[in-house]
Write a structure and sequence with these properties.
It is a single chain. The protein is of the alpha/beta class and 383 residues long. It has helices at 4-7, 21-29, 37-47, 62-73, 90-103, 121-129, 139-148, 164-169, 173-181, 198-207, 222-225, 238-248, 261-273, 287-298, 332-339, 360-368; strands at 52-55, 83-86, 112-114, 134-137, 158-161, 188-193, 212-215, 226-232, 254-257, 278-281, 304-307, 322-325, 349-355, 375-376. Helix 3 (37-47) runs parallel beside helix 4 (62-73) and helix 7 (139-148) packs across helix 9 (173-181). The relative contact order is 0.13. The structure holds adenosine monophosphate. Residues 32, 35-36, 39, 58-64, 316, 344-345 line the site of adenosine monophosphate.
Amino acid sequence: MKTNADTYNPLTTFADLPVSERLGRAVAEQGWDAPTPIQALALPELLRGEDVVGLAQTGSGKTAAFSIPLIEALDPKTKGIQALVLVPTRELAAQVAAEITSLSRHAPVRPIVLCGGVSIGPQIKALRNRSAGLVVGTPGRILDHLQRGTLQLGTVRYLVLDEADRMLDMGFAPDVGRILSHTPDERQTALFSATMPGTIQGMVERHMRSPHRLTVEAEAPTVDTVEQLYYRVDGRDKTRALRTLIDAAEEPRVVVFRRTKHGATKLHRQLERDGYRSGLLHGGKTQSQRDKTLAAFAGGRTRILVATNVAARGLDIPDVSHVVNYDLPEDADTYVHRIGRTARAGREGVAVTLLGDSERKEFDKIRRSLPAKVHESSLPLSA
Ligand code: AMP
C-alpha cells in the first residue's frame, strides 16, 4: 500500500479543487477557511479516481473528504445507484446524508437513507419511485433490501466504508462482505476508520485496488482543544456534582454519558424533576424520537443531553460546551470518542469525568493510554 510519503501533494485551499462550478460554490458557502488535514490529503486522490484508506477520527472533516468527490462522480444522466455509503449507525447516516445534501445544494443529488429501526415500506417505495443515484445506510438494512430484491447495486461506481472499525466492532463484517459482493469490481472505494486493526487490513486487501493510505496526525481532537478534567465524587453525589457544573457554566450545552439505558433514563428523569430540561438518547429510542431529541438539543431548546454510547461516535452537534462522563467509558477508545463530541471543528470544550471511589483503578488504566493529560480539579465554588 502507498503511504502519505509517496503521494503527499496536499490541497491547500478549497478554491484549488478540480470540481464543477456548482459544487465549488457550495463548498465555498460552507464557510470553511481551509481544508482539514484529511481533506487536504484525500480530496486530490479521490477526485483523481484513486482508492483511499483514511485513518481519521470523527471531527476530522472526513465526511466532506469523501462526499465532495462522491457528488462530483455522480452523473445525473445515468440510471441506477451509482454511489453507496455504508456507515455503522442511523445517526451517522443522517449526518452524512445532511452533509451531502448541503454540499450538493446547487445540483441536488438527494440521497436515499436506508437504516434499520424504521419501517421498510417507505424505503421500498422511495427506491421504486425516486431515481436516486446515491444510497447512504447501515449494513443490516441494506442487505435486507438486497435480499428482498428492492435494491440493486450492480451499477455502483463509488463506494464508501465510513467508520469501518466501528462497523466491524458491531459485528457487521459478514454483512459488509455480502453487500460488496453485489457491487461491481470496477469501482472506486474509500475507507475511513479511526483505527486500523488487522481485520480492516484484510478488508482493504480483499476489496480495494492498491489504495493510497492516508494518516492524519490529529488522532485525538482531544489533545489541543478539549480541556480534560476529572472530579472525585462520591457515587451518591454525582447528580449533584453535575447540577453544580451546569449551574456554573455560561450557556452550557452538555452531553452526559451513562453506560446503560436504564442509568440514562434514571438520570434524565432526575434532572427533569429538578427542573433541568434535558433530552434522552439511547438505543431503545425510535428513529423519530432520536431525531426530535437531537433537533431540540441542536436548536438549543434543551441544553442537556443524557445519552449512552450511541451518541459517542459520529454525532456532530456544534457548540457542545461540555462532555460529562457520568459513568466511566469502557475503554480509552470510547473515552476519546465521547469527548470528541465537544471542541468540534476547532472550537473549545471541556470534558469532565465524574469519578466515584470505586472507579479509580479503571480510570487510571484509561488515562495511561491517553495522549493528553487529564487533570484533577475541584467542583466550581457554587457547590
Ligand atoms: P466530520 O469529521 O466529517 O464529522 O466533520 C466534523 C465537522 O467539521 C462537521 O461539522 C463539518 O461540517 C466540519 N467541517 C468539515 N470540513 C471543515 C473544514 N474544512 N473546516 C472547518 N470545519 C469543517
